[in-house]
Amino acid sequence: MFSTFNGPFKLMFEDLKKQTIVILSITLGVVILFSISGHLFGDFTGSIFGPIYGFFLIYPFLLYNKTYKCVLSLGGTRRQYLLSTIINTVLFICINTAFLNVIYQLNLYLSENNLNPVHLQHVGLLFQSDNPVLYWWVDVVLCVFLFGVFLLVNSLWFYLGTIRILIGLTMIGGLFVVWFTNEGMGKIIDLFVNHLLSFIHILGFIGLCGMALSYLIMRNGPLERGGHLVGIRSKE
Asked: Does 76 reside within a domain?
C-alpha cells in the first residue's frame, strides 16, 4: 500500500526505466544498422532522434490506462501520481537525450576522422553551432514540449470524455487556423528564422504549462475516462 510519495515515485521510475531500456536499445540498433549500411553502400545520412521523440509523444496516452489505476488501487493519491509522473518523465527526458547526444558526438568524431561513413542529422544543426550542450538542451526542450502538450490533451480527454474533447479540439483548431492564416503564420516564421533559440524555449514553456495544467485538471480527476460527467468522480 502506498502511504507516501515514495511508492508512486518508485513505480513510475521503474516503469520509465523499462521503457527507456527498450527505446535506447532501438536507437542503438538503428545506429548499428546505419553503420552497416554506410560501410556497404558508401556515405549515408540519417537521424536517430525518432524513437526517443516518438516515445515522449506517445507515452502521455499510456499513462491513464495502467499506472494511474495501479497507483490509486494501492492507496496512492492523484497528486502523488501526477507529481511522480512529471518529475520522473523530466528526469528520463534528460537521461534519454544525454544518451542520444553521446551517440551523436561519438559518430561525429568517427565521421570527421573517416572512421565511419554515417552522417547523423540533429535538430541542433539549425543553430550552426558546435556546442554539444546546446544540442542536448534543444533535445530536452523539444521532448518537454511533446510530453507536456500531449499530456494536457490526454488529461482533458480523460476528464471530459471523447465527445467533449473532440468538440473542444475542433473549436480550438478552427480558431487557430483563422489566426494562423491571417497573421500568425508570418509571426511564427519570423520567430523561427530570426529568433530560433527563443522559439525553441517558447515551445518548452508551452510544454511546462501543459504539465502544470494537467496537474490542475487531474488532481481530483475521475477514475474512468469522462467519469466526472456521470457522477463517479472520486474525492480525495
From this structure: yes
235 lies in some domain: no
- Distance, in Å, from the CA atom of 217 to the CA atom of 38, rounded to the nearest integer, reads 49
Taking phi over 0 as left and psi of -120 to 50 as alpha, with beta for the rest, 175 belongs to alpha
| 234 pLDDT tier (thresholds 50, 70, 90) | very low
* Residue 1 forms part of a structural domain: no
User: Rounded CA gap, 152 and 165, in Å?
Assistant: 11
Binned at pLDDT 50, 70 and 90, residue 225 comes out as confident
Domain membership flag for residue 188: yes
Q: With residue 119 as reference, give the H or E element that holds it.
A: strand 118-121
Question: What is the total count of domains within the chain?
Answer: 1
| Assigned C-alpha cell, 12 | 513510475
Answer left, alpha or beta for residue 109, where phi above 0 means left and psi between -120 and 50 means alpha: alpha
d(CA 24, CA 48): 10
pTM for this prediction: 0.88
Rounded to whole angstroms, the Cα distance separating 35 from 107 reads 9
d(CA 190, CA 95): 32
